[in-house]
Write a structure and sequence with these properties.
The complex is a heterodimer. Chain A is α/β, with parallel strands linked by helices. Chain A has two domains: 3-113, no CATH class; 118-266, Rossmann fold (3-Layer(aba) Sandwich). Chain A contains nine helices and eleven strands. Chain A has helices spanning 3-16, 54-70, 96-100, 126-138, 168-173, 190-200, 214-226, 231-235, 250-266; strands spanning 21-26, 37-41, 46-48, 75-81, 88-90, 106-113, 118-122, 141-145, 162-164, 181-185, 207-210. In chain A, helix 4 (126-138) packs across helix 9 (250-266). The relative contact order of chain A is 0.09. Chain B has helices at 9-18, 58-69, and strands at residues 23-32, 42-46, 51-53, 77-83, 98-106. Chain B is built from two helices and five strands; from the N terminus they run αβββαββ. Chain B has one domain (9-106). The model of chain B has no long low-confidence stretch (mean pLDDT 81). The chains are: A alpha/beta, B alpha+beta. At the A-B interface, helix 1, strand 4, helix 3 and strand 6 of A face helix 1, strand 1, strand 4 and strand 5 of B.
Chain lengths: 281, 108
């Protein structure tokens, strides 16, 4: 079973290079020792055990290529593969475990594994630092941008994957922003936040949040609108930033921002769960 | 679709394999009703009883931990169902759901 180490190391390096993939585990082993496990990444690279049947592997590869393109986050599904027709169906029934052994079909667990979500923080001040501290616990890959080396350094940001001290646009351009990226603009001044917004708005990202009051942020948005930036894109910017938790301190603001990001990721409604409970009155 | 945003387990698994330590990987593969974690949540249980990650904590997790500890002298995949529906005052089971968990032994 030494191959396991290669398997997981390969998954790790695939994710490190930003390439998602699927870890496939065959679930209904006739012989329980026969635990087939392999990984197919987005580039169709296969690592790990091979299924004896080449056609089955091909069918799985085809299915995964389609599925992986339509997902953006890590998730799990169970599929059943008909050995004769090679037809693949997602299996959602609750009797999974009890049915597996009775079925002739092959069952596979597919774990779609995506690289870590990136949190790009523009501004290494109080809120920026609090954001990085909370985001580390949540599990983001953290990038810090600030030209002030006294603020943006490894002592204040030991959890950062990258710290960029160059000119704003240059720093932003050195990070590969993609659909897994969440950008928060919390720099020392509105002018800088505006400049950062101009740089990131046309780039790929899943979320852009910018700190500021209702009045101030609407001035910024209108100024960008006047410069011809699409209203649709500007409308999607999360500003004023964060969920309305009422907090004031840097830590509270950071929490409200990350709460909003988590809400965006999981499509939650941000309401207190207590409200979903039946009233006692 | 359930989104799983913690995939630190790969690093934990690699570390285990590199250190030549055996471990059991517990993965939630199916849930019904209210459960603390959904499909894809993982926990790594080490031979010394320590663990990383969580499949939901509490009683359910300790049940899985117990089953995992029994797996170190075998070499197989095991499926366990954890029932989180506890009767309240003899009433119907209303509290929670059921999680199906796949346990796999990791051999360095």
């Amino acid at each position: 079973m030494k191959k396991n180490e290669n398997l997981y190391t390969s998954i790790y390096s695939s994710l490190e290079s930003g390439i998602p993939g699927v870890l496939i585990t065959s679930m209904n082993q006739d012989n329980q020792k026969d635990n087939i496990k392999f990984f197919i990444n987005k580039n169709q690279l296969v690592i790990g055990d091979s299924i004896e049947d080449k056609k089955m592997t091909q069918a799985l590869k085809k299915y995964i290529a389609v599925e992986i393109a339509s997902r953006i986050f890590s998730s799990v599904s169970t599929i059943r593969l008909n050995k004769e027709t090679l037809e693949i169906q997602e299996y959602k029934k609750n009797d999974l475990v009890s049915n597996m052994s009775k079925h002739k079909d092959k069952f596979f667990l597919l774990e779609y594994i995506y690289p870590k979500l990136k949190l790009v923080i523009v501004g290494a001040g109080h809120v920026g630092q609090a954001l990085a501290q909370i985001a580390e616990i949540i599990g983001f890959e953290i990038f810090i941008i600030d030209d002030r080396k006294d603020y943006a350094n490894e002592i204040r940001f030991p959890m950062a994957k990258g710290i960029f001290n160059q000119d704003l646009a240059l720093s932003i351009n050195s990070i590969n922003l993609d659909s897994l990226s969440y950008v928060v603009l919390v720099s020392r001044g509105h002018k800088l936040d505006e400049e950062a917004l101009r740089t990131v708005i046309d780039k790929n990202s899943q979320y852009i949040g910018m700190i500021g009051s209702k009045r101030r942020t609407s001035i910024v948005l209108n100024s960008l609108l006047n410069d011809g930036i699409s209203a649709k894109k500007l409308q999607a910017v999360h500003t004023p930033v964060g969920l309305n938790l009422g907090g004031q301190s840097p830590g509270e603001i950071a929490l409200a921002i990350l709460a909003e990001i988590i809400q965006v990721i999981h499509k939650g409604d941000g309401k207190s769960l207590r409200l979903s409970r039946k009233s006692l009155l | 679709m359930q989104i799983n945003t913690d995939n630190n387990f790969i690093i934990d698994i690699i570390k285990c394999l590199k250190d030549k330590k055996s471990a059991v990987v517990a993965t939630v593969i199916n849930t019904r009703g209210s459960t603390p974690r959904k499909e894809g949540a993982k926990m790594l249980i080490h031979q010394d009883g320590s663990f990383s990650g969580t499949i939901g904590g509490g009683c359910g997790e300790s049940e899985v931990w117990q089953k995992a500890m029994e797996m170190f002298d075998s070499n197989e995949i095991k499926y366990v169902s954890v029932d989180l529906t506890e009767p309240i005052d003899g009433e119907d089971k209303v509290c929670g759901g059921v999680m199906d968990i796949m346990l796999e032994k990791l051999d360095p």
